[in-house]
């Protein structure tokens, strides 16, 4: 029984990997079940044991990547005067960067970023002990999470062309109002 479960898990993963290779090359509406099964070395009936269609494969990948609120590291600082711990976001993103970079990139799923932000936002609101999201909190979190997801996507897309330490420093500077003011001054806006 354990051997069957191991084989079943591997078969499912092989199908996901084949789908992912295709998804990295082309849009989902251009991917067929036949292409996935041919690439993975299985027949169509095997595919349908695990997935309803190609969209179901993507849905299952996305669901596995969305932050589980219970398992997420603390995202807010422990002390009042500390900044948001960017390392928590980098660690979360780094764990599956090959998927996040594509899903959040130009050819990815536009809805995925929203799903990801909503999951993280729920964790942050829980840590803030805010029963209701005020407009100010909601817009601030949307801005912060969009910026962090955007800059991490850009960093991985560019093969981590600056060190993690430099990235964290830059992100802290940008989150600080002086960082934005410096940029505006440099650009003479």
Protein described:
The chain has 2 domains: 2-61, Tetracycline Repressor, domain 2; 66-187. It is 70% helix and 0% strand. It has helices spanning 2-25, 33-40, 44-50, 54-65, 86-94, 97-103, 110-128, 135-157, 164-175, 177-187. Residues 78-83 have low confidence and may be disordered.
Give structural attributes.
mainly alpha, single chain, 189 residues, elongated, Tetracycline Repressor, domain 2
Largest sheet report: none
Radius of gyration: 20 Å
By DSSP, the count of extended strands is 0
Query: How many domains comprise the coordinates?
Result: 2
In DSSP terms (H or I, runs of 4 or more residues), the helix count works out at: 10
User: Approximately how much beta-strand content do the residues carry?
Assistant: under 5%
Calculate the mean pLDDT score and round it.
79
Task: Give the CA-based shape.
Answer: elongated
Could you estimate the helical fraction of the residues in percent? 55-70%
Runs in which pLDDT lies below 50 for 5 or more consecutive residues are: 78-83
* Order of secondary-structure elements: HHHHHHHHHH
Give the N-to-C terminal Cα separation. 66 Å
Helix/strand/pairing category: mainly alpha
């Amino acid at each position: 029984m354990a051997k069957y479960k191991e084989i079943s898990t591997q078969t499912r993963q092989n199908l996901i990997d084949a789908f992912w290779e295709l998804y990295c090359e082309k849009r989902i509406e251009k991917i067929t079940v036949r292409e996935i099964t041919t690439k993975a070395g299985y027949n169509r009936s095997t595919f349908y044991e695990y997935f309803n269609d190609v969209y179901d494969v993507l849905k299952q990948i996305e669901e596995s990547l969305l932050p589980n609120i219970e398992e997420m590291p603390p995202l807010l600082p422990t002390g009042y005067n500390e900044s948001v711990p960017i390392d928590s976001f980098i660690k979360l993103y780094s764990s599956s960067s090959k998927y996040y970079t594509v899903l959040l990139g130009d050819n990815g799923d536009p809805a995925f970023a929203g799903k990801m932000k909503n999951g993280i936002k729920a964790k942050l609101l829980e840590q803030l002990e805010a029963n209701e999201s005020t407009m100010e909190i909601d817009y601030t979190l949307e801005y912060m999470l969009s910026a962090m997801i955007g800059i991490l996507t850009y960093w991985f897309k560019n093969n981590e062309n600056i060190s993690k330490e430099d990235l964290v420093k830059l992100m802290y500077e940008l989150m600080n109002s002086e960082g934005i003011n410096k940029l505006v001054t440099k650009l003479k806006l």
